[in-house]
Every structure is written in structure tokens, then in C-alpha cells.
Amino acid sequence: MTIKPILDRVLIEPKRKENETKSGIILNASSTERPELGIVVALGSGKTCENETIDFELKINDKVLFNKYAGTEISLYGKDYLILKYCDILAVIE
């Protein structure tokens, strides 16, 4: 089974922050926040609900910065993903 986003949605594989600091201190789960960085895994068609088409300025494998609380979290085959609206992506990191 694969995930194919629809319309103006983007599938992101979030990059989790480390659970251990550089000095070796292990952080508990409550001290880590939801990630804001991720890798683009799949893109929707670019259409909106109003039948307009958005030209995505993204491609697969782009590293992106996104709105921390946006999107829907899902898990598939033990991997975590986020499905976001295109407008919730703030920047591409090069």
C-alpha cells in the first residue's frame, strides 16, 4: 500500500529531533516537540477545491520547513508521516 496525496496536499516524512543532547543527557518524550523539518515523499495533483491549479515549487526529496502544528499525522508500516496542505510549507532548505 502506498500513500498518494490528493489536491494540494503534500506527504512529508518528518525528521525527529534527537532524544539525546551532545553532552549525553537523554531527554524524555515530554521534552521533545513535534518536528518542523521533513523530506517531501509525495505530491498531490496541485488542484484546489475551487478547481484552480497550484504550481508546486517542490519536488520529491526536498528538505522543507513547515508549520509546527499543521497537518495530519499518520503511520504506515512503522514509519511516521504528515499530510500537509501546500500552504503550510514555509520554506525549502538547501
Structure in words:
The protein starts with 8 loop residues before the first strand and ends with a strand. With 94 residues, it is an all-beta fold. β4 and β5 form a beta hairpin. It contains no helices and six strands. The protein has a single domain (9-18, 27-93), classed as Roll (10 Kd Chaperonin, Protein Cpn10, Chain O). The protein has a six-stranded antiparallel sheet, with no helix packed on it. The model has no long low-confidence stretch (mean pLDDT 85). It has strands spanning 9-14, 37-43, 63-66, 72-76, 79-85, 89-93.
Care to give the gist of this entry?
By secondary structure, this protein is mainly beta. It has strands spanning 9-14, 37-43, 63-66, 72-76, 79-85, 89-93.
Order of helices and strands: EEEEEE
CATH homologous superfamily assignment: GroES chaperonin
The beta-strand count equals 6
Number of helices: 0
Unreliable stretches: none
What strand line-up does the widest sheet have? 4-5-1-2-3-6
Radius of gyration: 15 Å
**Shape, principal axes of CA atoms:** elongated
Distance between the termini: 30 Å
Q: Which CATH class?
A: Mainly Beta
Based on secondary structure, the structural category is mainly beta
In round numbers, the mean pLDDT is: 85
* Helix share, percent: under 10%
Q: How would you characterize the largest beta sheet?
A: 6 strands, antiparallel
Strand percentage lies at 35-45%
**CATH structural architecture:** Roll
Feature tags:
94 residues; mainly beta; 10 Kd Chaperonin, Protein Cpn10, Chain O; 6-stranded antiparallel beta sheet; 6 strands; 0% helix; 36% strand
